[in-house]
Amino acid sequence: MDISMCHVYEDEIKSLEEEIKLLAEQYEDIQQESTFYSEEEILMAIKAFQSELQGESKGNESRSDLKAQLESLEADLSFLMKFTCVQFTSHSKRTVERYRNRTVQKHRISGKCHSLSFQLEFQLLEMQDEEKVSTVITDLSIVMESGEDANVSKFVSRTEEHGDLLTFFRSLSSYAEWYEHRRRTFLHFKVVSIKLLSI
Known about the structure:
Elements: H1 3-35, H2 39-84, E1 86-99, E2 102-113, E3 116-128, E4 133-144, H3 150-162, H4 165-198
Antiparallel strand pairs: 1-2, 2-3, 3-4
């Protein structure tokens, strides 16, 4: 065997022996530390652990509270959907920008009101001060089924300009109800005229 190879192996062996010695010393220190705990300290540690467990069980209670709140909110939403006849079929949200006290999210919502379908796309700018949170709707885009109606087109354009979603949903509910009445009336007269022509 080459002498240089022997030196390499000897150096490696010395390095491993030093590492073993260091690990043995660390092990002894740990063993000594564990024997330094008094019964009182051990009991205190057990009590602290038990209080942590109780805190977790309280967390479970708060989960049940959250579940009850969620069920209540779902019931409220269901009531509002029946009351206004606005039903949301899909919603997606994506955070576009987040900077300290400013967040911008992009929302896409689609739904129906009576037989009239709609789609909304907008950005929600949320700014937070020390005292309050303010939100602003920007880049509102509305697509409605009855876009050929000139009055609806004007209304949609005005709503997009002002970013007023509350007015949009109020007006949509009223308009869609009358749109549904007109549609049924038209179908009724269409059926009557077909019957009269077939006589």
